[in-house]
Design a protein that fits this description.
The chain folds into 2 domains: 29 residues; 115 residues, 3-Layer(aba) Sandwich (Oxidized Rhodanese, domain 1). Helices cover 48% and strands 11% of the residues. The chain has 9 helices and 5 strands. Strands 1-5-4-2-3 form a 5-stranded parallel sheet. Helix 5 links the parallel strand 2 and strand 3. The protein is elongated, with a radius of gyration of 22 Å.
């Protein structure tokens, strides 16, 4: 009988410990619930701060204060990268250090870019979550931008009112 009691106590202790390890951070989950609360319906992309290649290009052509934040790896940026004035190239695995976060302006629109937009979406969401409200994500990344832009699009003057987010 004593052996069974010890087994039961041991099982209860292990269950409590494992249960604690499987739990999640409720406060963090609540903060994400607040962040994603406006993401619904037809305006989900806007609420997620996604910007289409056409809108991005129109802002660039209209010389709006915009900073591209390229989060690709150094190997990727050796092959292709943004060449816009003020572009920041910070790999995603180095982005969330104090030194690099201090480089991100808070007084300009910041557009996070990567090859396909997947990493940029994660990084942009995380940046907004820690307080960078001016951060947007280039929808579809470099792939979408390259598919959209050609000589005609690059050289066509921006239309008034065309630079929507």
């Amino acid at each position: 009988m004593t052996r069974n009691v010890l087994k039961t106590l041991l099982l209860a202790a292990v269950t409590c410990f494992v249960g604690e390890a499987w739990s999640y951070d409720a406060a963090l989950a609540e903060s994400y619930a607040e962040l994603f609360a406006p993401v619904k319906g037809a305006s989900a992309g806007k609420a997620l701060h996604m910007i289409k290649p056409e809108s991005f290009l129109n802002k660039v052509k209209a010389q709006k204060p915009i900073v591209a934040l390229d989060i690709d790896t150094p190997a990727e940026t050796r092959v292709y990268s943004m060449t816009l004035p003020g572009t920041l190239a910070i790999p995603i695995n180095e982005l969330f250090t104090k030194e690099n976060l201090d480089l991100i302006p808070t007084d300009k629109t910041v557009v996070v870019v990567c090859k396909s937009g997947t990493r940029a979406t994660a990084a942009g969401t995380a940046l907004r979550h820690i307080g960078f409200e001016n951060v947007y994500v280039l929808k579809g990344g470099f792939k979408a931008l390259v598919s959209y832009i050609g000589p005609k699009e690059a050289n066509t003057p921006v239309k008034v009112g065309a630079a929507k987010k």
